[in-house]
Design goal:
Elongation Factor Tu (Ef-tu), domain 3; 24% helix; TIM Barrel; 422 residues; single chain; Peptidase_U32_C; eight-stranded antiparallel β-sheet; eight-stranded parallel barrel; alpha/beta; 26% strand
Amino acid sequence: MLLKNDRISEIVDGKRVIVKKPELLAPAGNLEKLKIAVHYGADAVFIGGQEYSLRANADNFTVEEIREGVEFANRYGAKVYVTANIYAHNENIPGVDDYLRALEDAGVHGIIVADPLIIETARRVAPKLEVHLSTQQSLSNWKAVQFWKEEGLERVVLAREVSAEEIRQIKEKVDIEIEAFIHGAMCSAYSGRCVLSNHMTARDSNRGGCCQSCRWDYDLYQLADGREIPLFAEGDAPFAMSAKDLNLIRAIPAMIELGVDSLKIEGRMKSIHYVATVVSVYRKVIDAYCADPDHFTIHEEWVRELDKCANRETASSFFEGFPDYTNHMYGTHSRKTTHEFAGLVLDYDRKTGIATVQQRNHFKPGDEVEFFGPEIENFTQVIEKIWDENGHELDAARHPLQIVKFKVKRPLFPYNMMRKEN
């Protein structure tokens, strides 16, 4: 049974189409990533301010940058949500009121929170802000979701550990917006409730200090008669508690049919190449399924496209049921990215066919590169000659952020990207 506000599809001209199209929500660790995410098709982005966010190592946004990001997103009809999802201690209380008022004044559409302190404060001092409950609250049953709905929240972010069947039950029983993760890192702890970083680096993982201690390499020892006996032989691969990344590209049709309101990509610390690649792929999948769900198929080139920015093995994790040991990486089990980000297109002269590109990784004449972007079909070509901004020929683009020019056989647009195969 679907709730009255959750009609998923209808018949149009004899064909079923999806009328409840989910929001595609992308990460943005800084202003450049925000613009890239929106340009490549995100309906909304989530960002972190310089306070009260769980990604202290991201660039994060000043209030002025948040305002600029909101203005940019508004021009494209996109929304901006700000994470304020730390578990606050007494020392974090001063300043909460002023910070939330500043977010409301900047035009932020909503905040993602975990601590009742911040929820209560937002309701009191910044009532125009939508309040979304963070995955840090580990919501995995409909009764808990019902509780937070009765507290007045507009949306809940489900725990990464919920299955498709549990999502179905929650949507059937509670009329509230549901946000669920579809792609990105998984945590070895329960939706991020971890204190490894606290113990090993004196950084509070639940106040933005997580350093991913679970992904470190560990030796294992057995204590016997006061002696440490190594359990690994010399040369053995070290042990790590490293979960495979989540990848639900093949489950997007199921999530849409379940009525999930927002499909979330993890990764505020990731590069603009990662953001652009993942957002563009899921944009294509969502749009294609919603246009003709009964004849939809997953194109394998979409799957391969995600591999071009993947640096870990991936799995469906909890979506299809409780995962087993194959959802974790042990020892040296990892994946090398098939491609590396080489350059960001700044301009293209249609008369001369010369592109202006900002270097992001070393490339040189003779390299075969691939261009991609929302306005073009992916294509490859071999670079012939490279010039600097003053017209001097170069043997390579070797300096970070160097501006170079070279001929490209097809038209390009600003924010298109260039990569090369490893």
